Amino acid sequence: MANLFDTLTRNQRKPRGFKYKPIYFDAEKAEFKAYVEKLRAERDATDKGLYRPNYKGKFTSQIGKKSGYQKQMLFYNLRLLFILIGLVVGAYYLYNTGLFNTAVNKFLNLFSNKDGLY
What we know:
- The chain is mainly alpha-helical and 118 residues long.
- The protein has helices at residues 2-10, 27-47, 68-97, 99-112.
- The protein has 4 helices and no strands.
């Protein structure tokens, strides 16, 4: 059994590697990357490779402030609320004045009378 396993695994092909060759070369991008690398090397030489960002107290200043997305959602919800209130008030008015009942009765009478549509 061990000989069969060795025979099957010995001659397996290796997967072909991925070799990417870009068709388009952007000189400005390469120049920018070189500039950024130069700046990073200068920063590492002066800071000795230690960079510690100071986040202390940065996020507490954002408490209570609303982002643009939150403001948009607030206005959207208020507009939706006013539309729903208007629809409810309109439906209440139509129901109490009897306009709704008379319109429904006229519509139903169209189908029940012989003088109607059918």
